[in-house]
Design goal:
The complex is a heterodimer.
Chain A: E1 7-18, E2 21-33, E3 38-42, H1 49-56, E4 64-69, E5 72-73, E6 82-84, H2 96-100, H3 102-107, H4 111-124, H5 140-153, E7 158-162, H6 170-187, E8 190-195, H7 198-204, E9 207-211, E10 218-223, H8 238-252, H9 256-269
Parallel strand pairs in A: 3-8, 3-9, 6-7, 7-8
Antiparallel strand pairs in A: 1-2, 1-4, 4-5, 9-10
Chain B: H1 2-8, H2 12-17, E1 21-23, E2 30-32, H3 35-73, H4 79-82, H5 85-97, H6 101-129, H7 134-149, H8 156-163, H9 167-191, H10 195-203, H11 208-245, H12 251-260, H13 264-294
Antiparallel strand pairs in B: 1-2
The chains are: A alpha/beta, B mainly alpha.
Chain lengths: ~270, ~300
């Protein structure tokens, strides 16, 4: 099982105590992500997607299970993967360029060298002219760009994106999605992307994992058959609609029997 | 007056000549928009109000001091207790030219500023240190609150016995007045740090000390800065009370001395000198605050 994918999540469970009760937020989660793929995770809110990301980023320990990257365990190892949180979390007292080089700075790269790496990227990916601005002067979309560039510049093969466009309006969102695809194609990173938005998941991903409600577990894995490069036209194609229909069915299917059996089946495969 | 004149005459010509012309869509006729005129009025109004406020302040001051002087001269206020502005000015001048007033001012402000700086600095360090351990912070918090409630001025006699009647006991009293408040301010800054920001730092592989230096300290700085204004007044009070208890120099000592020899004029001189000192130092702190806020963005790495 190990060693095949770039990232392997094996039988992860997470239980914590709250108000003297055991709450299970993740139950036997398996993921396998091949190198250079764009993989989305969708699921109802509270399905433990963010918990899973925190475990994969090494910020949280699972109750049981294993996460490997490049064949090595990364449980409890912070900083091995690039992680972009829901909120942009730009430090308000720093300029945009100083925010973007934060990861390099923490690693001890001299500021001059870090800036020399950051500035061409800012220029290429739409932040030219904002270098000396402070975050509060930027729009939501621009701030997300800065946050993503910060993650990219941290230079990890694997990047986790937790609903990065959740707070943006529909139009900004679309342009940000295209921008993200452009970056992904340029850098060839392995991306894991959490979203609530089915359209977004289909438009961006190679594979989509559908999570069940709490306790979160993988209900299905679906490969998106739409070839790249994709355009906004694809969003209204029959293939797209068909897939969307299927995903809605999976997401809102309350029939626990189906859920149970698919889980059993998956566990058998594993 | 200008307001009235403009009400009488809306002067659309001048408006049109300034290019403020819009066409009404239905009729195609030119219509002047009076928006500019309203804006102008607002500005004038503000200017006039500002002038009124300034004049009003001067008048209140003049009435207070003039009235004081007149009432004393007319014999309605006893000059023995109340002194009067002219006598106070005269005594001040004497003290400045022939007395030790300059030295006293220097002594009091020196103790205040030293106590203020050290108190703020160590208070901030103490408050920030609570970030490192929740248990340490939890254990310390009630004691901090008790110390804050404790009337530190009442400790004055003990401090004088401990540290003597010289300069150090005044500085220490000013220090004690400021250190706990600053610690409490800094601690509330530390408590308000966005946990997601810490998560971000850890996800970038940061060590705890890096999170502290790059997030916790800059985040808490505005809290520490806001303690400055309170602190300067507290430090001055500490220094004065220190001089009250036992001292050879300082404006506070001068006031106490003047009181014991019933030189009421000199007491008033002390009161005025201290209020001016307080205002000057407050002004200095406001400037310091502005400077720090402006350069806040540069305080990192």
């Amino acid at each position: 099982m190990n060693g095949k994918g770039k990232v392997e999540v094996t039988d992860i469970c997470k239980t914590y105590r709250k108000d003297d009760m055991n709450v299970t937020s993740l139950s036997h989660v398996y993921l396998s992500v091949e190198e250079g793929r764009f993989v989305s995770i969708i699921g109802p809110s509270g399905c433990g997607k963010s918990t899973l990301f925190n475990i994969m980023a090494g910020l949280l320990l699972p109750t049981s299970g294993e996460v490997t990257a490049d064949g090595k365990s990364i449980i409890g190892r912070a900083g091995y993967v690039g992680y972009m949180l829901q909120k942009d979390m730009l430090l308000p007292w720093r300029t945009i360029e100083d925010n973007i080089i934060l990861g390099l700075e923490i690693r001890g790269v001299p500021k001059k060298e870090a800036l020399a790496r950051a500035l061409p990227m800012m220029e290429k990916y739409g932040l030219k002219g904002f270098e000396k601005h402070h975050p509060e002067e930027l729009s939501g979309g621009m701030r997300q760009r800065a946050a993503l560039l910060r993650t990219l510049l941290y230079d990890r093969d694997i990047i986790l994106l937790d609903e990065p466009f959740g707070a943006l309006d529909a139009q900004t969102r679309l342009s940000m999605q295209n921008w993200l695809l452009e970056i992904w194609q340029d850098f060839g990173k392995t991306v894991l992307f959490v979203t609530h938005d089915i359209d977004e998941a289909i438009y961006l991903s190679d594979d989509i994992y559908v999570f069940s409600a709490r306790p979160g577990s993988v209900r299905a894995r679906i490969t998106v058959p739409i070839p790249r490069p994709r355009t906004t036209e694809d969003m209204t194609s029959p293939k797209f609609m068909e897939l969307k229909h299927e995903l809605i069915g999976l997401l809102y299917d309350k029939n626990s029997g189906v859920q149970q059996s698919s889980r059993e089946e998956r566990r058998m495969r594993a | 007056m200008t307001n009235a004149g403009e009400k009488l005459c809306p002067a659309p010509d001048t408006v049109i000549s300034k290019g403020e012309v819009r066409k009404k869509p239905e009729t195609g006729k030119a219509v002047s928009i009076p928006a500019r005129r309203i804006l102008y009025d607002e500005e004038t109004e503000k200017k006039v109000r500002r002038r009124h406020i300034r004049a009003g302040r001067l008048i209140v001051g003049a009435v207070l001091f003039g009235g004081w002087e007149l009432l004393v001269r007319a014999g309605l206020l006893d000059s023995y207790y109340w002194s009067c502005p002219s006598a106070i000015l005269k005594t001040t001048w004497q003290q400045l030219t022939t007395g030790t007033l300059w030295g006293d001012i220097l002594y009091t402000s020196g103790a205040t500023i030293l106590g203020f700086l050290t108190g703020t600095f160590f208070g901030a360090l103490l408050g920030l240190s609570f970030w490192w351990s929740k248990s340490y912070a939890g254990i310390s918090e009630p004691y901090l609150i008790i110390l804050n409630a404790l009337p530190k001025l009442a400790l004055g006699p003990v401090l004088v016995i401990l540290f003597g009647i010289g300069f150090p006991s005044k500085v220490i009293l000013a220090f004690l007045m400021t250190v706990i408040t600053t610690a409490l301010y800094a601690y509330s800054g530390v408590k308000s740090v966005d946990p997601a920001m810490e998560t971000l730092m850890y996800s970038l592989g940061a060590k705890r000390r890096q999170v502290f230096a790059k997030v916790v300290v800059p985040w808490s700085l505005p809290w520490i800065i806001s303690s400055l204004r309170v602190n300067i007044a507290l430090a001055l009070a500490g220094a004065i009370v220190g001089e009250f208890i036992a001292s050879e120099h300082g404006v506070g000592r001068m006031v106490i001395y003047a009181g014991t020899i019933l030189d009421i004029n000199l007491v008033w001189v002390g009161v005025f000198v201290l209020s001016i000192l307080s205002m000057v130092m407050y002004g200095g702190v406001v400037l310091l605050e502005k400077f720090l806020s402006k350069h806040l963005s540069n305080i990192h790495s």
